[in-house]
Amino acid sequence: MRYQGNTVLVEIKCPARCEKVPIIDKEGKTILEFFDCQAGTLTLKKSHSYYTQLQLQLYIMNLSQAVFYAWSPVQDDKFLFVDRDMNFLSEVVPKLEFFYFTYLLEELSKTT
């Protein structure tokens, strides 16, 4: 998607748990484990796999920003911007490269 002249990644989630329950309740809390909600402000938890997924997509596509969109039929949809996190990627990418080149590539070559 183009946003303010830049290409950004869009990740859409439609959590079934929010079919009849709002993403953010009246007390400013969320039932979604991938969000953190402080004073009504949502952030994507860095400890959740969606954060890793988003960061790796940004890395692979060489993009600097993503829009994370959560749909809800009972409340205004929620979206937030997530910037590429080079500190996070500098820890995760070498581990993935090690796994790929040490284990996965060898297994993949056996199947052809």
Automatic annotation (TrEMBL):
Any one of the GO BP annotations: DNA repair
Gene3D superfamilies in the record: 3.90.320.10
Top-rank taxon, per record: Eukaryota
InterPro entries on file: NF-kappa-B_Signaling_Reg, PDDEXK-like_dom_sf, Restrct_endonuc-II-like
Protein name, as recorded: YqaJ viral recombinase domain-containing protein
Organism: Haemaphysalis longicornis (Bush tick)
